[in-house]
Specification:
Elements: H1 8-16, H2 23-34, H3 43-59, E1 63-66, E2 72-76, E3 85-90, H4 99-102, E4 106-108, E5 111-113, H5 117-133, E6 143-148, H6 159-167, E7 171-174, E8 190-194, E9 196-205, H7 221-233, E10 243-251, E11 261-270, H8 275-285, E12 294-303, H9 310-326, E13 332-335, H10 341-344, E14 350-352, E15 358-359, E16 367-369, H11 373-386
Parallel strand pairs: 3-6, 3-7, 7-14, 8-13
Antiparallel strand pairs: 1-2, 2-6, 4-5, 5-16, 9-11, 9-12, 10-11, 15-16
Helix pairs in contact: 2-5, 5-11, 9-11
Length: 387
């Protein structure tokens, strides 16, 4: 696939002023990475993407470590003079094998469409090109690029590695995608905060009986669920940014059987520290009014909240000033979705959303803006040099 034509403005900046990376080289590497499918559930496939990244990193002189669970750590100029800068990315996607057959990579005008390009293979490629632009002139303390294999499924194997790296870093830069362009209010904004995520599921177990002959002998788990749902969702505190929604329900075996089992799955998100513990305690205490129905909760914090802090806003101010010098405007906002930045934010200043502008994460219209991407890579280069 050939690179699309780029504007004269970008060509001038890229080649005459040396500020932006070569857009054709960016596209070439992204087509290679996005053309290698890497669903989270297949560690061998994810490792193939990590191998490509490792090859590029070794070409830049990285010190490479393979960590448990598949995470890879690439260190550039780490000299111990001060804490390194952490650059955090992931190689997995939500898309199953075979998606490229129905969603092939394609360029339409200024957009590249395809699975995983927005979330977040363009971010991985952009990170490598930003490092390449430093030409081996690493900042004092150096840079650590951590690329994980399982962000899309909650980072079960990589969380400990992320937190260990963040605890030793002076700041974390996360080239996850910025806010999507379909958000007319905050399109392309960096992410200065994210909600924490709680994994919550409830299994209700009642008693089966013939629905026609002896319904009184049954204890309906579905009826218990219907009674519980308003009480569950009452745990929300919109004023504090806490949302609690029952998003899936499954129960019953046949139309003529009192349902003995029902399962609820929740989407729970919190903005403030401490809210996760309040919600966990409140949900765990909920039981059906019908005492014949037993309740079994499965509750865990998936990601802690990433609050919008002064440290993050200070990082954003640096980014905003650099963007202005590069010729574009930069904004920020807090968002509801989580990322691995949620793990770094409690441990070091964190700025998220430094990947390629676009839209459609996890959706069939997933794409990036090729005309805007070189700007964001140039911005990341500046931050790597100056933070």
């Amino acid at each position: 696939m050939e690179a699309p034509a780029v504007s004269i403005f970008l060509v001038v900046l890229c080649f005459d002023r040396g500020m932006f990376p070569d857009p054709e080289a960016l596209l070439h590497d992204l087509l290679l990475l996005a053309g290698t499918e890497s669903p989270s559930a297949d560690p061998v496939a994810v490792a193939r993407v990590l191998d490509l990244v490792e090859g590029w990193a070794r070409d830049l002189g990285a010190e490479v470590r393979h960590l448990s669970g598949g995470t890879r750590r690439f260190a550039f100029g780490e000299d111990g003079t001060r804490p390194p800068l952490l650059l955090l990315a992931h190689a997995d996607t939500v898309w199953p094998h075979g998606t490229l057959e129905t969603m092939p990579l394609r360029v339409e005008g200024e957009r590249l469409y395809g699975p995983g390009v927005f979330d977040m293979k363009a971010g991985v490629v952009g990170a490598i090109h930003a490092l390449r632009a430093l030409e081996g002139q690493w900042p004092a303390g150096g840079i650590v690029l951590l690329v994980t294999p399982d962000e899309e499924i909650g980072s079960p194997s990589s969380r400990a590695h992320i937190e260990a790296a963040a605890a030793q870093a002076r700041a974390a830069l996360v080239p996850e995608p910025p806010v999507g362009e379909s958000d007319t209010r905050h399109a392309h904004a960096l992410k200065s905060g994210r909600k924490g995520v709680i994994d919550a599921a409830l299994t209700l177990t009642g008693r089966a009986a013939h629905a026609g002959n002896e319904p009184e002998r049954g204890a309906s788990a579905v009826a218990a669920a219907a009674e519980l749902i308003p009480r569950i969702e009452a745990a929300a505190r919109p004023d504090l940014g806490t949302t609690v929604l029952v998003t899936q329900i499954a129960g019953g075996t046949a139309t003529n059987v009192v349902p003995a089992e029902c399962r609820l799955t929740l989407d729970v998100r919190v903005s403030q520290a401490g809210e996760d513990e309040r919600v966990l305690r409140g949900l765990a205490a909920l039981r059906p009014t019908d005492r014949r129905v037993q309740a079994a909760w499965a509750l865990a914090v998936n990601r802690p909240p990433f609050p919008r802090s002064e440290a993050t806003l200070s990082l954003f101010a640096q980014a905003q000033a650099a963007a202005q010098e590069l010729g574009f405007t930069l904004t920020e906002t807090a968002v509801g979705g989580g990322s691995d930045g949620n793990f770094t934010a409690p441990l070091c200043p964190t700025l998220d959303g430094l990947g390629a502008p676009g839209d459609g994460a996890h959706a069939p219209h997933e794409h990036i803006r090729l005309d805007m991407w070189p700007q964001r890579v140039a911005l990341l280069t500046r931050l790597l040099r100056e933070v």
